[in-house]
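ok new one. same drill as before - structure tokens go in, u give me an amino acid for every spot. 357 of them this time. try not to just spam alanines like last time pls lmao
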């Protein structure tokens, strides 16, 4: 008796499943969990993470003084994620898109802190001409496509960027960040499905900072192991220590190699922790001070790397000098922003439509 087409289809899927291991990348990461960085690379990672930390601290101060308006979401505590991932990108080919906690990602690209701070303070010299503010920063020159205020919306746009890489055959991939709160949005799963179906070159990154806008993941998510959520779409997942820049960088090496090899998307969960509230208006009363202090003492990404540098031969005085130089750079960025003019009223009418198609 002949098998029905449905039986044949099911049999075909079963054969495909036998050849595919969703946990293969996780096993590779566990077998080689940390990037073997040179002392020069360690120092570079340290400087970049410290720049983000000091920049965000200054941004918090300016917000308190009323020089930054609207919403302001700081990246303090999550520095290892942006630096670990973006240090592994090919900046000539790859694209990045993220949500509204975006200052750290801009700095990780090496973009001038002055134009970022000017954007935060709504000045003409800002990277988005003072019209985007904290949540809407763009740099098409660096293939950085935002900075998006709608929770989870950037994931679908990231799928479009990945499709463009594939269509143009430019060898690039898209790095699409979103948070644990956005992980429950429907468009995220629609994008997973299309990315897997079309074999798109994209790495989905869940920056799991544990609290979304203020609700612990255990209260909002039935499946709290976010890297497993690609399983239904045959997307391999990776569970990464987002407080260790060397762990993140090693995971990036593995994931990017997989995607560049034409194997389709990867879903990476970076478990991290933000020290401040969701935004500057959030007092974060849903967690204890002791919890935050414990994370700072035991898992801080910058202090962890500082210890590795000292073990490699760096002195306390040398690292203090680096911190002093970075503080000076950040203060200069704040002074530049405060002394820069606001946009002319006519700026409201620019960049509204694309004039040439």
């Amino acid at each position: 008796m002949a098998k029905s087409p449905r039986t044949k289809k099911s049999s075909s899927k079963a054969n495909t499943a036998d050849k595919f291991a969703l946990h293969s990348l996780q096993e590779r990461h566990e077998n080689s969990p940390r990037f073997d960085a040179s002392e020069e690379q360690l120092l570079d990672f340290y400087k970049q993470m410290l720049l983000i930390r000091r920049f965000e601290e200054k941004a918090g101060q300016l917000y308190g003084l009323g020089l930054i308006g609207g919403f302001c979401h700081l990246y303090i505590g999550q520095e290892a994620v942006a630096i670990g991932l973006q240090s592994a990108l090919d900046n000539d080919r790859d694209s990045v898109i993220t949500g509204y906690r975006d200052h750290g990602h801009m700095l990780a690209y090496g973009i001038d802190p002055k134009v970022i701070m000017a954007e935060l303070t709504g000045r003409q010299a800002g990277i988005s001409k003072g019209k985007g503010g904290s949540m809407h920063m763009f740099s098409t020159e660096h293939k950085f496509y935002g900075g998006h205020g709608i929770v989870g919306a950037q994931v679908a746009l990231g799928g479009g960027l990945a499709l463009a890489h594939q269509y143009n055959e430019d060898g690039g991939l898209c790095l699409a960040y979103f948070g644990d709160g956005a992980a429950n949005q429907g468009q995220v799963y629609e994008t997973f499905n299309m990315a897997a179906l079309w074999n798109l070159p994209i790495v989905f990154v869940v920056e799991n900072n544990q609290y979304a806008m203020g609700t612990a993941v255990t209260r909002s998510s039935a499946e709290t192991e976010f890297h497993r959520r690609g399983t239904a779409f045959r997307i391999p997942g990776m569970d990464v220590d987002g407080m260790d820049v060397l762990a993140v960088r090693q995971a990036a090496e593995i994931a990017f190699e997989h995607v560049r090899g034409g194997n389709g998307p990867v879903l990476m969960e970076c478990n991290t922790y933000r020290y401040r509230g969701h935004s500057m208006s959030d007092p974060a009363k849903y967690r204890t001070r002791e919890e935050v202090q414990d994370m700072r003492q035991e898992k801080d990404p910058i202090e962890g790397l500082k210890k590795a540098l000292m073990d490699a031969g760096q002195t306390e005085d040398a690292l203090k000098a680096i911190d002093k130089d970075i503080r000076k750079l950040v203060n200069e960025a704040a002074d530049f922003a405060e002394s820069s003019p606001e946009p002319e009223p006519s700026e409201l009418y620019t960049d509204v439509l694309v004039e040439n198609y």
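The chain has a mean pLDDT of 92. and btw The beta strands are 95-97, 174-179, 202-208, 237-241, 266-271.
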